[in-house]
Amino acid sequence: MERRRVAVLGGGTVGAELVRLLQRHPAAAAVELLGVLVRDAERERPFAGWRELVTTDPGFVQRADVVVEVLGGTGLAADLSLEALARGATVVTANKAALTERFDEYLPYLRAGRVHCEAAVMAGTPVVGPLTGALAGSRPLALHGVLNGTCNVVLARMDAGASYADALAEAQRLGYAEADPTLDVEGVDAAHKLTLLGRLAFDPALAWEGVRRATRGIARLAPAALAAERERGRRVRLVASLVLGAAGWEGRVRPVALPEGHPLLTDGATNALLFRGDPLGEVLLRGPGAGGGATASGVLGDLLACLRGEPGPRPPAAAAPLPDAPGADEPLDEVADGAAA
């Protein structure tokens, strides 16, 4: 590997774990770590030499050959990443919100293979690579995924009889949900991830606004609705889908009832992605989709690929051919909202 100058944006749970993993990896010899951009330079970090590496001044980023962005958000993190790309650097990012909401700005660099983003969806469980690689040989029929661990945790506790408010409070206490869980429980996080996957593997013109309008989260589900589904041998999960619509590929996120044994039925931070294609058939990708270690593992994998000179995933030049009819995919039963208790 050629020695590269690397800047890390973000030193929180994921960023700190990434640096720790990198420092003990054999590839560390090929990296000159320029610094780690943080919001609080006084907070102790769990990696060697943190006092010398952390800074609130982004000036060092301008010297980097590779920028690793785990800061999050659609503002500063995206601005710094796009500035780095414009001057010729490569970017490794786990920021699905920035990639989705500012996709047109990233698109020229994605097409050039200079953006690596495996960890933006399902953390360290690889889905971007398979969808843009081996699975691209099959004509897609549909894509369904359980892409948000927070919603899984909350719904599992509601399955056990807890109210939505109590289930969410417990998920926050255990560290599965943020203090402000809106992006998760309203389905926005899953919608970001679905839109990114759709643009990379189905249709580069898939509109974020359309997916956002077709997104409904779990905050208004009634425990009685979940109990009724359990009586029928089904459990409710938040599912993101890419399916044939009236005008082409459409994305939607909503609670659905899954029968026991369904491949998408997961608990905790386990995510799952179900691809249906012709002639391949059905492919299931399943594994940890959240957490500092899982996400840092995916980011490090991308960084290693970058150090080897491998390109990132490239979106298709045009939309994938549409299925002949909606019946090519098995429909999922949506669960209506109710008064959450």
Written description of the protein model:
The protein is of the alpha/beta class. It has two domains: 4-116, Rossmann fold (3-Layer(aba) Sandwich), CATH 3.40.50; 128-289 and 319-334, Dihydrodipicolinate Reductase, domain 2 (2-Layer Sandwich), CATH 3.30.360. It is 34% helix and 22% strand. The chain contains 13 helices and twelve strands. A six-stranded parallel sheet has the order 3-2-1-4-5-6, with helices on both faces. The chain starts with a strand and ends in a 7-residue tail after the last strand. The model has no long low-confidence stretch (mean pLDDT 93).
Task: Show the helix and strand layout.
Blueprint (H helix, E strand, L loop, with lengths): L3 E6 L3 H11 L7 E7 L12 H4 E2 L10 E4 L6 H11 L3 E4 L2 H6 L1 H9 L3 E2 L11 H5 L6 E8 L2 H11 L4 H10 L8 H4 L2 H14 L6 H6 L9 H9 L2 E12 L2 E12 L10 E9 L2 E8 L3 H16 L25 E2 L7
Parallel strand pairs: 1-2, 1-4, 2-3, 4-5, 5-6
Antiparallel strand pairs: 7-8, 7-10, 8-9, 9-12, 10-11
Helix pairs in contact: 1-13, 7-8
CATH architecture call of the largest domain: 2-Layer Sandwich
**Between the first and last Cα atoms, what is the distance in angstroms?**
56 Å
Q: Whole-number radius of gyration?
A: 20 Å
Q: Give the total of domains.
A: 2
CATH topology of the largest domain: Dihydrodipicolinate Reductase, domain 2
Percentage of residues in helical conformation: 25-40%
So what's the overall shape? globular
| Biggest beta-sheet profile | 6 strands, parallel
Write out the CATH superfamily name of the largest domain.
Dihydrodipicolinate Reductase, domain 2
Task: Please report which band the strand proportion falls in: under 5%, 5-15%, 15-25%, 25-35%, 35-45% or over 45%.
Answer: 15-25%
Question: Spans of 5+ residues with little confidence (pLDDT < 50)?
Answer: none
Strand order of the largest sheet: 3-2-1-4-5-6
Encode the helix/strand succession as letters. EHEHEEHEHHEHEHHHHHHEEEEHE
- Please count the helical segments: 13
Average pLDDT, to the nearest integer? Answer: 93
